[in-house]
Amino acid sequence: MIAFSHLPVMPEECMEGLALKDGGVYFDGTVGGGGHSYEILKRTSPNGRLIATDLDDNAIAAAAKRLEPFAGRFGIYKSNYKDFAEVLEKAGADKLDGVMLDFGVSSFQLDETSRGFSYMKNAPLDMRMNPEADLTAEAVVNGYPEEALCKIIRDYGEEPFAKNIAKNIVAERKKGRITESAQLVSIIEKSIPAKFRHGAPFSRKTFQAIRIEVNDELGGLEEAVKGLCRRLKKGGRICVLTFHSLEDRIVKNVFRDLETDCICDKSLPVCVCGKKKELEIITKKPLTASDEELRRNPRSKSAKLRIAERVEEYK
User: Fold this and answer.
1) In this model, does residue 108 exceed pLDDT 60?
2) What are phi and psi of 231, to 5 degrees?
């Protein structure tokens, strides 16, 4: 068993962004190995409280062990962060002083062969964050129609050769079921012209797309981020780490919408829309990892951090 990675991305930037305070109540929706959660609890000692969620049993076990020094001040729930309302009710919390969301796949999940997240090592096509979920990468690859595969690879992977890849997947599965990541890598390789297979790993976009589909990573994301922003107390902060442009675009648009005040026609003498500014965006442009962090943790290369602060409590 590979040790669960505890290396959080941009920890100092995230903690500074959260503007942590003793006695605050914080929500970490993607606890992973507990790296960000550990820093939150350490820096809000002795009375800060943490509520965390994750779907991965290994992540939950690793985080619980890592957070043992703060026993009594945290609770970890096996749940999707999108179900935050139910989790907060169970935890007896209503308003929050801060929210941390890290949408990255952990090094453990990438490196653990049995999970099939990585195109670098052969493994069963699984890719489930929650091992109890029904849908697997194998089911997507072998069961989805060609048009659906093309749309997923094009939209979620932003892969320009999505049509070729989908066509070749369907042709190959007619010969026999595609069950391993190495088979999929081989299909992708022959679907992309050789001159475009240099530089970045050519399978990354397709694997990302299938992983997003398997785990429904974008479904409900907008509603969850907006809902969590509205659980913040006045002055509370939300920090969101994204690792691909689709997630980042959704977060950016939610922040912009909540920062926007009255949208009435300016010719009207009074506001009739009732829209009020709810957030102040702290990061006008997303923060990225420093050169030092990139040397220490190359997987932080694609990370973008957006931070916003609640200006009025939602009623």
Assistant:
1) no
2) -90, -5
Residue 35: burial class (beta carbons within 10 Å; 0-12, 13-18, 19+): buried
Rounded Cα distance between 225 and 163, Å, is: 32
Give tens-digit pLDDT for 205-255: 999 999 999 999 999 999 999 999 999 999 999 999 999 999 999 999 999
Closest CA to 210 of 178, 235, 255: 178
Both structure tokens of 212 = 């997003």
Q: Are 172 and 178 in contact (CB under 8 A)?
A: yes
Q: Are 262 and 269 in contact (CB under 8 A)?
A: no
242 Cβ contact list (under 8 Å, min separation 6): 103, 248, 251, 286, 303, 304, 306
Beta carbons of 259 and 281 less than 8 angstroms apart: yes
The pair of three-digit structure tokens given for residue 181, joined into one six-digit string? 């990541």
d(CA 275, CA 271): 8
- pTM score, two decimals? 0.88
Cα 52 to Cα 34, 63, 239, 256: the distances in Å are 9, 10, 14, 26
- The residues, ordered by sequence, that sit 6+ positions from 143 with a Cβ below 8 Å of its Cβ are none
Token reading at 246: 């689709």
Distance CA 130, CA 150 (A): 25
